[in-house]
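CHAIN AND CONFORMATION:

***
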Amino acid sequence: MTTQSHQPDLLYSEEEEALRAAVRDLLADRCDAAGVIARTESATPHDPELWKALSAGMGLAGLLVPEARGGQGATHREAAVVLEELGRAVAPVPYLSSAVVATEAVLACADDELTAGLASGRTIGVLAVSLGTAPGAAFGTVRLEDGLLHGELTGIADAVAADVLLVPAQDGGLYAVAAESVTVTPRVSLDLTRPVATVGLDGVPGRRLGDAEPAVRRALRAGAGLLASEQLGLADWSLTETVRYLKERKQFNRPVGGFQALKHRLAQLWLEVVNLRAAARNAADALATGSADADVAVAVAQAYAAPVAVHAAEEALQLHAGIGMTWEHPVHLYLKRAKADSLAYGTAGAHREALAELVDLRAP
């Protein structure tokens, strides 16, 4: 049986642009840079009110969930637009963790009750797999003894905000575990807007949802593919703000942006961001349509996205000159998120290796 090739649509629809405008307006009102910086210095890095506005107010937590199961019945394309805007604002909400990764894992297991809770945003779910795990890589598991789960899992993103953890066990099952029954130990992370933690399970009960292997693979593939849209938002903000700043700042009585050396750097960065947009949109479209090329599209997007996002944030820091070194300016948030994202769901190198395998282009 042959699968018909899909012609990707990289353009944004009118509905997607309207969604972008609505999310950007909300973030402009609720997620200013000063507020995000203040949260990173507090004991509560996540913003529960912003999450409530995004999930309950706008229904964005359920974009990937069919209407019959309590969601919005949208696709990965719409979720990608949301993640672009969340990346542009470095929003401290567990959207990627709960509304994408955990939701995809639960959809693979067909658990309607938990699916509806995640879709409404009332339940924040987190897949208890290390943030650095690539879609095809081995992932950590815990022991199942006498019906209880034992073990420790490290590098779990947004575990401090979770209501339920999706825990893979050595028996091959994926278990839903109430967050209050586990020990969550926050770890110091470079990106304080997406904190990581160690999760300890000392004989805790869990409800078996289904088989872990296909659910985790599906969840990590969607996470990696849509992370590229978040990285696009980071890179686009970095470029846009840097251009704006260089037009305003003057040296020798002329705008700094008029110097040819800086024009060349900005032009190169613009090309990289445009290419990243194409790669991210291709991945989102492939996931949305169930394309046979989805694995390739995700690998291409992640192989390209990480270095571009980091480069864009580094250029923003350098071209803002001294102002970028002050804690009050948000550019450091973007650099830290870009650096952390470059390790999330597999490094660029891991995705290049996966891509070589997928297209049968092995190293000599």
About this structure: The first strand starts at residue 125 and ends at 127. The mean pLDDT is 91. Residues 88 and 237 are 5 Å apart (CA to CA). Residues 212-248 form the longest helix (37 residues).
